[in-house]
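step: validate -> pass
step: tokenize input -> pass
step: predict -> running
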Amino acid sequence: MNLNLFKTYVRVIDTQNFSRTAEEIGISQPAVTKQIQSLEDIYGVMLLERSGRRLRPTEAGETLYQCAREIIRLVERTEREMQAMADSNKGSLTLGASTIPGQYLLPRLIKQYKDIHSQVSISLSISDSERVFNQVADRNLDVGIVGAWLNSRKVEGFPWMTDELVVIAPTNYQGGKGDSVRLSELHNEKWIIREKGSGTRRSMEELWFNAGLRRENLTIAMEAGSTEAVIAMVEAGMGISIVSRLALSSAAARLRCRELRIRDQDVTRQLYVIYPSQRSRRDSVNNFLEYLKAMKA
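step: predict -> pass
step: emit ->
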């Protein structure tokens, strides 16, 4: 069935006039008349009758009018929903992440997402948590994943995955008991720390505070701009540090340093998914957020 026949018929009933319908849909009046006759031939019934100078539907014509309107609505709804599905597999995503999720979680998750949404163009920048938060607030990023939450009316988000922090030391380090250590035992050590704005640094400073350690009484040997740099400095024997266990997920990383579990307090922290506060978002952004929510752990 030609949908245009139904559309023309509905407009004829609505306008009660062949010539007005012809003007509205951009065809000749004889073409409108021919389409109505085609419908009458198809169904074998009279659809229209004249009442003075106006047209009105017969009983069969009224039934067809109601059915035709419903068919048109369903077809248009189908087209809208299918277009939305197609659009969700296109478009672009601008992502930002702090070091830990950006280096150790997102590459695998983005690959899995691209396997499904192959036409979505994705860019990822890695920075410290504070900078990612500010870029999201300024709407320069569609989605950010960070290791610390900062209060901002311009940013919304949700807790995502949990991350465990551990102490790392050179492989010849003699401290600790077995594979664990108390932070209070480490007040005389040299520390390698992340740069200001890092979520890992914020978490480290909170752990120090809870263990009764004060930064002004500690020896800070070096600040580093990435977790990989921290691990390299610890490996070289410059001091100890606290990093995410995710950074030691590979066998090669574990061989470079000695890993010590912190046994005197809770050492988990939360990773957050953040995005700009706004009423509506592109389908590609909404779909990626739903994908990340499904990954929560």
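step: describe -> The mean pLDDT is 88.
step: cleanup -> pass
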